[in-house]
Amino acid sequence: MTSPKTARADTGKPLGEFGRIDRYFRPLASGFPGARGLADDAAVFGVPPDQELVVTTDAMVAGVHFFPDDAPGDIAAKLLRTNLSDLAAMGAAPYAYTLVTALPKTVGEEWLAGFAAGLGEDQARFGIALAGGDSVSTSGPITLSVTAFGLVPKGGAVPRWGGRPGDRVYVTGSIGDAALGLEIAYGTLEVADDSARAALLGRLRRPDPRTTLGPRLVGLATGCLDVSDGLVADLGHLCEESGCAAVLESGRVPLSNAARSVIGDDPARFAMALTGGDDYELLFTAAEHAAPALAALSAETSVPVTAIGHLLEGPAGEVTVTDAQGRILDLPTRGWDHF
Ligand SMILES: Nc1ncnc2c1ncn2[C@@H]1O[C@H](COP(=O)(O)OP(=O)(O)O)[C@@H](O)[C@H]1O
Ligand SMILES: Cc1ncc(C[n+]2csc(CCOP(=O)(O)OP(=O)(O)O)c2C)c(N)n1
Ligand SMILES: [Mg+2]
Ligand SMILES: [Mg+2]
Ligand SMILES: [Mg+2]
Fold this sequence. Notes:
Layout: H1 16-29, E1 51-61, H2 72-90, E2 93-103, H3 109-126, E3 129-137, E4 143-153, E5 168-172, H4 177-186, H5 194-205, H6 213-216, E6 223-226, H7 231-242, E7 245-249, H8 257-263, H9 267-275, E8 282-286, H10 291-301, E9 305-312, E10 319-322
Parallel strand pairs: 2-3, 7-10
Antiparallel strand pairs: 1-4, 2-4, 5-8, 5-9, 6-8, 7-9
Residues 58, 63-67, 82, 182, 228-229, 277-278, 336, 338 line the site of thiamine diphosphate.
């Protein structure tokens, strides 16, 4: 069903709530009939009979998740991608999303135009459409939330709690870039090499959700989640839910060239990489016999998959981090906690 509505003409006057929806958000919903042209009270969409809907919500607040003066297109990309990362962690393919914007009255149309353009680019990149949302004003900082809907074969969603003692622990891509990028953004880490600096800041601002690899883990991974709070903290979450413990061999944790050069032999920076979060890589477990299939999947999708440890019987949630010599590495924290 398509909406009879089209964007209003530009009259030069402030657009107001509905004018903004018309101009900036309606075009993002045009490819998705269930959005009903953003002209109805709600969206309506079905699910193919052999699939299930996977639903995830994440919010972002200026000053907490991004800097208030970050480019609006980057903010949009991070907002959508962090949610796509949660879909990937469930083994779900992107389908549709809803958007809540709570904006201070000082946020103008230039910001909104950049934000909507960023959403549009990523919608095309990841194959997802806007289905609806809400627009409110706030006397606080910019606050944004996306609810993402994904599709997974019935019964196939990969749980956090499927890990079993003896399983290997794997991570995609590389870890720590965003955490180092955050230190650069705060001005607490000096990086002279421009390309390393740009690479680390880039991973902070525009994470790379593993939307292609995630759905391929259905039936292969025993447990999975995405790394948002920090590698050690999130492995702890998987272990808590799986009722077991883990050993994380820190010497095996994949680092980008930029991260490796910035970390050097500084243990504090290495700890930052292991616990800083914002990675949006997939952290998953699989039985030992799945190793050849995972190697083939990694080659096929061009997404690095690295074995970094294993699960074992032990107190639920306990993560022992070892160094390259097998000694226990003491970390100041496991990861991000909002409270
Ligand atoms: N305010 C809330 N109301 C309901 N469920 C919540 C709330 N906050 C978190 N959760 C749920 O708690 C679990 C852990 O949340 P979270 O750590 O944010 O997961 P993730 O890192 O994947 O976003 C998720 O299942 C999430 O849906
Ligand atoms: C300005 C700024 N300060 C700090 C951070 C770091 N940071 C903020 S929240 C967070 C954890 C992930 O966010 P959360 O809301 O916990 O996402 P979820 O775990 O629900 O996916 C991190 C690492 C940041 N990205 N930007
Ligand atoms: Mg969350
Ligand atoms: Mg998650
Ligand atoms: Mg979190």
